[in-house]
Amino acid sequence: MIEFWYEFGSTYSYPAAMRVERLAAQAGVAIEWRPFLLGPLLHDQQGLEDSPFNAFPVKGDYMWRDLQRICDQEGLALVHPSQFPRNGLLAARVAIVGLDAGWTPAFSRTVYQANFVDDRDISQAEVLAPLITAVGADPDQVLAAANSDPVKAQLKDHVRQARERGLFGAPSFITADGELFWGNDRLETALDWAVRHQNLEQA
Structure pTM? Predict the structure, then answer.
């Protein structure tokens, strides 16, 4: 098993979200989707009020070029959002709502498509509503649940868990034995580690 920790405003979380289930299925590893908010961690750990890719333009220029190469390799479209990073709070709450029903992975992929391909403002309920419908859920019910105290508390708990477990970026992957891997380019490494751990447990 691997926990997949992702943030909707995170650039490298986009290709990770689009390929994690396919690669995990090939490896025989279960994935637990864990939406969270990266902003509080960046503020607490690094004192940042904005994305480090905005705070350090040379790093941002490299990131966008690197992301384009990754997306080209994966056959994914990429459009530089007119606003970056976008506020993923409501989308993350909606993703929390879908965890038990099982539509969080499909919804999450549509949110990344909306943000990094269609350049839509994913902070807006009217943008998310058709994405909720597309995964077979009722947007009015889901959006109401997303704004409820229990769901807000669950997302805050995800942020707390992320902080306590040493996360400092997204995407991040945590294996069943607690090993942390950071970055889209560490997905395969995390899966290999998880497979070895499973094999040792079964031996």
Answer: 0.93
